[in-house]
Amino acid sequence: MKALTHLSRFIVGFLFIISGLIKLNDPVGFSFKLDEYFSEAVFNMPFLQPYTLGLAVFLVIAEVFLGVLLLLGFKKKFTLWSLFLMIVFFSFLTFYSAYFNKVTDCGCFGDALKLTPWQSFYKDVALLVLILILMLNQKHIRPIVKKDSTNYAIVAIALILCGIMGYSVLNYLPFVDFRAYKVGTNIKKGMEVPEGAPQSKYNIIFTYKVNGAEKQYTMDEIANVPEGAEFISREEILVEQGYEPPIHDFFIEKDGANYIEDFLEEPKLVMFVAYDLEKSDVEGLKKLNAVAEKAKAKGYKVIGMTASSNNVIETKNSKYHFTFDFYFCDATTLKTIERANPSIVVLEYGTIVEKEHWNNADKVTLK
């Protein structure tokens, strides 16, 4: 049992540190997941949505903090109870996501490792078992370092480093970009579906009103719909997920037309990404025109990308007098491209060659 306790201690501590650091590399992305959980469609707790970023930063630093404490064997009662409560909380979230199919990716390991809802839940159950083993065998958990002052110093250093990392990624860019739109990605190639790739399979359910009552029919039964029945609805239910390209939801739309082919063929393109202009940083918006004029002088095509409405775009235009046009794209896609709101993305023939936070607007490389 002693060996099992030490093994459990290492696995739990290591996973909590790795999971925390991966999410700390992109706390804004994790905050988007929490925002999904707090939305009306899931837990209906919109009053918590304004605090998701702060909560995300707290949770991921707490994961690293507890992982370090466990590996050190320091403050074991506090550590084990904290780990237990945290994994119970996460297990509830992942079970809810899996059973009700509400949030299809819990973000446990950010964009570095995608898990299905059920995989996430099973992972949390396994961790819960390991933590229970540790709680039942606390006597075998002894500090690696005997002096309390040294343990406090190690924990303090870990927290300081986490704080520095969090500050850096929130004000600039993630240290490592695990997303589909990282630098070096060709967007058109990322949208391609390989020949022979498996296709998604769906059950199609038709609902008709027959003799005053609603009745459902599958595709095989559709021929049996009686004459005069009133069509109500058609629903597609995913049975088996086929191949989905890394980039599958990118478009550049304006006035009902999609300009993706035109802009992804541009040899020099600067794209300002602001998924929500109403929430965009004021100082960031003020910097865009300067970058746009510098880019145009060097022969770049310049566009804005947002999910905001035309009314919002017009309001912001009247305030900031943008010298470029905004095009529409889905907010989730734009959040995936870049977390900063706004941010600058430079492309050459559809390949992302540079991404910058608005704080680094003056450092954008324009050839």
Automatic annotation (TrEMBL):
The chain crosses the membrane at residues 7-24, 51-73, 80-100, 120-137, 149-170. Residues 1-136 form the Methylamine utilisation protein MauE domain. Its main location: membrane. It is a multi-pass membrane protein. It is found in: Membrane. Keywords: Membrane, Transmembrane, Transmembrane helix. NCBIfam families: BT_3928_fam. This is DoxX family membrane protein.
